[in-house]
Amino acid sequence: MKRYFPLLLLIILFPITRVKCDFVKQEVDWFHLYGGSFSESGVSITKSSDGGYFIVGSSNDRDPWWDIYVIKTDELGNEIWNNTYGNLRESEQAYDHVLAENDGLVIIGIKDRDNATKKNILVVKISKDGDLLWNQTYGSERIEEGRSIIISSEGGFILTGSQSGTGPTETDIIVMKIDDNGNLLWNSTIEQIGHEIGASIIESSNGGYIITGSISRPELESDLYLVKINNTGSVLWNRTFGDSGYNITYRLYPQDQGKFVGEDDEGNIIVMGQTQSFGASDLDILVLKLDSEGYLIWKKLLGGEDQDGIGNGVIIKDGFIVVGSTNSFGAGINDDVLIYKLYANGSINWMMTFGAEGIDRGFDV
Predict the structure, then answer these.
(1) pLDDT band at residue 219 under the 50/70/90 scheme
(2) What string of DSSP letters covers 131-153?
(3) Residue 201 to residue 320: CA distance in whole angstroms
C-alpha cells in the first residue's frame, strides 16, 4: 500500500524584532506541503533569480531505490515543476546543492550501487528548467559520500564528504576540486586516527577552505572538528571542540544531525552544530564564534530539557538564523520545526516552533 509522505514544509516568516524573549509569535505568510504517494525528503533550498525557489531532496519512487528529487516553485511556493534523477537498480540521494550560472543547479550526494556495500560520491548538474546536463561519480572500492559543495572563486567546484579508511572503523574527510564539467582536478584526504566526517565547506576570505564536521576516536566520544586547508588541499591547521559526549556538525544522521560553517564580515568563523557537552541537558544546538585561526571567542547552547537538533543555519546582516528540530518545545511528543534568530553576539532575539501532531523537522534555511 502506498503512503503519503510530505516532502517539505516550506515556511515564509515575517520576523518581529524583540530585545529579549523565549518565544515570539511569528506571522506565517504562507507554507506548502510537497510530495506524492512515496517517501520524499527535502534537504536543501535556494532562492532563484526569478524570486522562486529550488528545493532539492530525495524520493523512493522506485522503492526500495532512491532518486534525487528537485522541485521548482514560484515566489509564493506554488510548484512549477518537479523531476527525479536516477538509474535502474541504483540509489541516488542528494545532500546539498549550489546555484550555478544561469540558475543551473549542481547537486552533491551519494550513489549506492550495491545495497550500501559500495557508495560513491555523485555530482549532478541540471539546467534551470530541470534538464540533466551531466552527472559524474567519484570514488573507488571504498565507501565515499558527498556532503557539501561550493563554487570556487578560481572556477569549478569544491566538495567535501567522507571516505572509508584502511581500518574497519576508520573514515577520513575527503576534499575534491572539479571543473565546470565535473572533471576531477585534484582530491585530498584528511586523515586522523579514528572516524572523521566532513559536513560543510566554505572558501575562506583570506585564502584556502574551511571544513567542519566531526572526529571520534576509539577511546573517546565524538568532538566537533574544524580544519583549514590551502587551495590544493594541504592542511594548514585543525581544531577540536568538546569535553565529553557528542559534539557533532554533520547532518542527516538519525540523532546527531546538523552542520554549518561560515564567516562574518570581520573574517571570524561561525560554526553551528549540536552537542552533549558544555552542560547540555540532553542534545542541544551549539553555536561557536571563532577567530580567523579557529580559536574560541564565544559559544552558545540552544535548546531545552530534551533533544534539540540543528538542520542548518545562515549568517544575516545583524546575526544568525538557525533551523532544526525540537523535542523540548512545541505542540506534542513528536519533533517540531525549531527556528532561532540570534544577535551577532549570540544572544537570542527570538525563537519559534512550527508543527502539528506528526514529526516535523527543519533541514535548511
Answers:
(1) low
(2) -EEEEEEE--SS-EEEEEEEE-T
(3) 18
Identity of the residue numbered 365: V
At 192, list the grid cell.
586522523
Write down the residue that cell numbers 574560541 correspond to: 296
Question: What 3-state DSSP class applies to 172?
Answer: strand
Taking alpha carbons only, the member of 291, 295, 303 closest to residue 348 is 303
Look up the pTM and report it.
0.86
The 3-state DSSP class for residue 145 equals strand
**Do residues 91 and 117 make contact, with C-beta atoms less than 8 angstroms apart?**
no
What is the rounded distance in angstroms from the CA atom of residue 320 to the CA atom of residue 261? Answer: 12
What domains does the chain contain, in order, with CATH numbers? 40-271 (2.130.10.10)
Q: Residue 254 pairs with which residues in a beta bridge?
A: none
Q: How far is CA 113 from the centre of its chain?
A: 23
Integer CA distances (angstroms), 205 to 89, 140, 185, in order: 43, 33, 22
Angle at 333 between CA 40 and CA 359, to 5 degrees: 5
How far apart are the C-alpha atoms of 328 and 125, rounded to whole Å?
Answer: 39
Q: Which of 11-20, 83-92, 268-277, 329-338 has the lowest mean pLDDT?
A: 11-20
Strands 269-275 and 284-290: antiparallel
Residues contacting residue 153 through CB under 8 Å, at least 6 positions apart: 203
The CB density around residue 35, as the number of other CB atoms within 10 Å, is 19
124 within 8 A of 110, measured Cβ to Cβ: no
